[in-house]
Amino acid sequence: MKVGQRLNLTDHRRRKAIRRCDHGEETLAEIERSYNVSGCVISRLDGRQ
What we know:
By secondary structure, the chain is mostly helical. The protein has three helices and no strands.
């Protein structure tokens, strides 16, 4: 049994978003909009928490 909130991104989409953040040509807001997630989701990935 898993406890906690369901993840908004699959593992594949999460890795791709991290790559896009690292590449630096897009803002976090642009990446968030492309995946249709809230601001905190991508910023948490960017912090690698």
